[in-house]
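subagent[fold] <- orchestrator: predict structure for attached chain, return tokens only, no commentary.
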Amino acid sequence: MCAMIDSQSAEKISRMKKLRRTLSESFGRIALKKEESSFDEICVTKMSTRNCQGMDSVIKPLDTIPEDKKVRVQRTQSSFDPFEKPANQVKRVHSENNACITARTGSAGKESPKPTSPKFGKADSYEKLEKLGEGSYATVYKGKSKVNGKLVALKVIRLQEEEGTPFTAIREASLLKGLKHANIVLLHDIIHTKETLTLVFEYVHTDLCQYMDKHPGGLHPENVKLLLFQLLRGLSYIHQRYILHRDLKPQNLLISDTGELKLADFGLARAKSVPSHTYSNEVVTLWYRPPDVLLGSTEYSTCLDMWGVGCIFVEMIQGVAAFPGMKDIQDQLERIFLVLGTPNEDTWPGVHSLPHFKPEHFTHYSPKSLRQAWNKLSYVAHAEDLASKLLQCFPKNRLSAQAALSHEYFSDLPPRLWELTDMSSIFTVPNVRLQPESGESMRVFGKTNSHGKGVSNSKH
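subagent[fold] -> orchestrator:
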């Protein structure tokens, strides 16, 4: 009886030992698999796909791998990895028993990794050529792409660890990524590093401010018409997408060497939601800021941009700013009311409810014809009428960009201009070209300044 019990006990103990051994082996395999999985994750993160080939199979110890294959198990340095160590330092290699052993890279007899071709999205894919401008949070450089050799404008935005990425940069990048139009500056690339955010734009040679400075006294009437048409094309495109530029001024209108005008600097732009939200009234450079915003209105729409169009239109024809305020908002409003008349509830319903409108603070002026203020408007057919429909104190009376494109002022342009696709330049239409300004040849574009004004504070 005792012998039978001893036999059963021995058999039970044997089974338990076998079970324990089986469980031990199972846990060992699980642990091994976990370690291999962890290494594979590191491999995916830090090695190229080519260097990770064969990781699913058993990895041989380094001394059993043929010389011509050793480089495949070593983690090659990536020029774009800020955490990678220099090539002459020790690098880690995975062995069959999951131990990490060390190997020297770059030693004699071993082939160095081939340099990778420059790619979009990488900081060293662009060469800086010269500085074009600098502002409070960004610097703009003329640059060259190493990928395709084309000139670019590099808007380098400095990131502050405490403050993060400036909201204006985020807004500009997010809006421009979705805008594809011949009259809107093209965003090629976005490069993000720990210290900077770089927006890579197409390179455009100058801006309207510099172009007008080079040709004082007003531009050629036909050139004004083509430049204004392009401005309205670009604005109509963004307004149809419920986007307001909010910072229209000559410095933000780039002009290529072929005369193509492009809207730029969308740092203050906003996507207008429905229902309407209130917005900041600290937008638009003072000279191009509409009276409703000057008086404190924060509820505005696309009519905000259209006032700026009217000011720029007059400036291109007359050769001087339409309302060049020299002191403050009060002075700016006085200059506007001197021409258009001091508003009241009859001419501007709701004006008395605006925060900064105090009738006793303003001189009472009667409206004048625009040609009295800017005589050159009378030299061009329908120019005064178009300007008067853009420069309306009451925001809702201002012409929209789409309606302005159909104004009689443009009636002598080729009909094909209204049939162009978004990405087609107006200069693809036969006989459409800029005229030489007085005393110059066609190649009139001076000192480069692509996006130079795009580094402004965005506070005016």
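orchestrator: received. Logging for downstream: The chain is about 30% helix and 15% strand. The mean pLDDT is 76.
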